[in-house]
Amino acid sequence: MIRIRNLHKAFGGQQLFGGIDLDVASAEAVVCIGPSGSGKSTFLRCINGLEQFQRGEVEVDGTALHSVNRARPTGADREAIRQVRLKVGMVFQQFNLFPHMSVLDNITEAPVQVLGESREQAAERARSLLKRVNLEAKVNSYPDQLSGGEQQRVAIARALAMRPRVMLFDEPTSSLDPEMVGEVLSVIRDLVNDGMTTVIVTHEMGFAREIADRVVVFDRGEIVEIGPPETIFRSPRTERTRAFLSRVLKL
Length: 251
What we know:
Order of helices and strands: EEEHEEHEHHHEHEHEEHH
Helix content: 25-40%
Number of helices: 9
Low-confidence stretches: none
Structural class: alpha/beta
């Protein structure tokens, strides 16, 4: 479903990625862990075209994004990005809901404007998705009337309303109070169990261990280790992985 080859990314002449390769199979759950600043979030943003990269290729469900070494992307570049974004839903650390719109309107706006769905069709699907994330009673509420966990679940429903083939989650619980983390992780867990291709950046190590088919460890812009969670967490191969886990798990 996702194929990444020789990905190079630099900021202001300083290299972040020096040639990353990764494949993600259909229905696979891949969890990215590693120190803050190691490139995990930028990696996700390269997958859905939010960040340009200088060398390499990212392919999502047969649509390829190529490196851009010029100031402005061409029409072909922009069309490829548009096609990828139609296939990829992304949930960010911040909820990014429209504050002046109800929950229902937040979810239906993109399917109507981008996919050309009727208001009635989009609203029916929105109500179904709200039921899926246990928020059907909040359909007419506004973002400032919701808790952080509720807002993040609406953001997940909004992404799902575009019928994506892949879901990307960029530290979806980092802005939540501890008591709200579980309700968001439960929704993500259900998506994974339903077979959604998923790439998750998280600092929730217990969740990563439980949900991942494979864990990808980033450090200083490199993938230093990839493996099943039982291997990564019980017997990591590299010293850099061991050092990171010893800090976050206080081993």
